Amino acid sequence: MYNDIKEKAAEVSGxxxxxxxxxxxxxxxxxLEGEKNISELHDTLEISQSLVSQFAIKMxxxxxxxxxxxxxxxxxxxxxxKMLELMKAIKTIYC
Length: 95
What we know:
Elements: H1 2-19, H2 22-31, E1 36-37, H3 38-44, H4 49-61, E2 65-70, E3 73-78, H5 81-94
Antiparallel strand pairs: 1-3, 2-3
Helix pairs in contact: 3-4
């Protein structure tokens, strides 16, 4: 039992570090609604477009988000069902 927890502790800790940042959390909440590009995220967030892009790229590199290119824009979405369920739980509890 404890081996399972030990194996997952680093993964869960990494996810919680991502979610613990206010703006990254806000991005994840916005992506609950579906795919969004950087401009759409920027319109809601109160930070520069370049910072939104940096956050999105970092979360993509950490396997939290995935992206796809459509014409000239990059669309981001939550990567897996675990993150989707976590964000739904956070939204249910706090929003």
